[in-house]
Amino acid sequence: MEPRLDFTQSNPAAIQAVMGLEKALSKSTLEKPLTELVRLRASQINGCAYCVDLHTADARKGGEDNRRLATVSVWHETPFFTDRERAALAWTEAVTLVGETRVPDDAWQAVRAQFSDAELVDLTLLVCTINTWNRLAISFRKLPT
Predict the structure, then answer these.
(1) Is residue 33 classed exposed, middle or buried when 0-12, 13-18 and 19+ CB atoms within 10 A define those classes?
(2) Per-residue confidence in pLDDT tens, the chain, 145 aa
(3) Is the pTM of this model over 0.90?
(4) Backbone torsions φ then ψ of 104, nearest 5 degrees
(5) CB 143 within 8 Å of CB 1
(6) Where are the domains of the chain?
(7) Could you identify which of 87, 104, 116, 142 might form a hypothetical disulfide with 111, taking C-beta atoms 3.0 to 4.6 angstroms apart as the criterion?
(8) Could you give the CA distance from residue 6 to residue 141 in angstroms, rounded to a whole number?
(9) Fold type of domain 32-139
(10) Longest Cα pair distance anywhere in the chain, in angstroms?
(11) How far apart are the C-alpha atoms of 28 and 126, rounded to whole Å?
(12) 63, 89 in Cβ contact below 8 A?
């Protein structure tokens, strides 16, 4: 597979807009390990090889356990994640698959119990932002390096 184009160079102003979301999210009170799990899970769902590679590496650099990283895709079936992480992962799946799930009430109830209003907005923006990056990387065939 060959890259189609370098989207970061082809429209820097658009990429800067997305980077503005990243900058705002970097000031969030969401825990860094949690944000990497969310980014990784959405990237797995979307099949974005570049982002799965990137966020797995970032999570490892942040001290994330290899066993947890290996089981993010099957988090429902493991005891390795906290209730807060489980709620965030369920929310990530529901929002990423919004056309299929319509973001069901059970996902909302779980995430609502674990996150403040501001955190809910940040978490949802985090999911939306990684989905944007996934769609750019997949569409233009950005490859892991």
Answers:
(1) middle
(2) 899 999 999 999 999 999 999 999 999 999 999 999 999 999 999 999 999 999 999 999 999 999 999 999 999 999 999 999 999 999 999 999 999 999 999 999 999 999 999 999 999 999 999 999 999 999 999 999 8
(3) yes
(4) -70, 160
(5) yes
(6) 32-139
(7) 87
(8) 9
(9) AhpD-like (1.20.1290)
(10) 44
(11) 10
(12) no
C-beta neighbour count of 19 within 10 angstroms: 13
Q: What's at 68, amino acid-wise?
A: R
Cβ proximity of 50 and 144 under 8 Å: yes
How far separated are the first and last CA of the chain, in Å rounded?
Answer: 13
Give the residue from 24, 56, 18, 63 showing the smallest Cα distance to 37.
56
User: Which three-class secondary structure state does DSSP give residue 6?
Assistant: coil
**CA gap 15, 109 in Å, rounded:** 34
Task: Quickly tell me which residue has 């489980």 as its tokens.
Answer: 86
